[in-house]
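Morning!

This is the sequence you dropped in the shared folder:
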Amino acid sequence: MSQILEQSIQINATATVVERCISDLALMHRWLNPVLRCEPVGAWSTDVGSESRFIIQIPLLKPTLNSVVVERQPGLLVWEFQGFFQGRDRWECQPKELGTLLLNRFEYDIPNRLVSWGFNTFAVSWTKEDMQAQLRRLKRVAENL
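The structure's back. Tokens below.
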């Protein structure tokens, strides 16, 4: 059964600038959680079919989500991932009169019942807080470009 976490933030920057913060690997590493690292498989790209790995920097374990871009349009980027989670991470830039509304929708399923229980019991609230913190960091990056 899929679970959904959604967050949004108003950013005082154009949708083009906000999208660049999501699609440019160097800018992405300025707002991603420092324990999360994104590594391309091959050359970095956010074109449909492009692959990358999101690695949680936990010593020895380094849990990894393998991802592929499954949807890409101006202002929209959707990664689908496989690993200890399965699901999608959708980023959508909606131009507004005074900047951009950025929506982040994290839809996931954890097939292992024990891992799912552990995540829902101990980590889901931290994940929500982390998503909001990432959006605040992304906002700072975009507004300073």
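Headline: The chain is about 30% helix and 40% strand.

More detail when I'm at my desk.
O.
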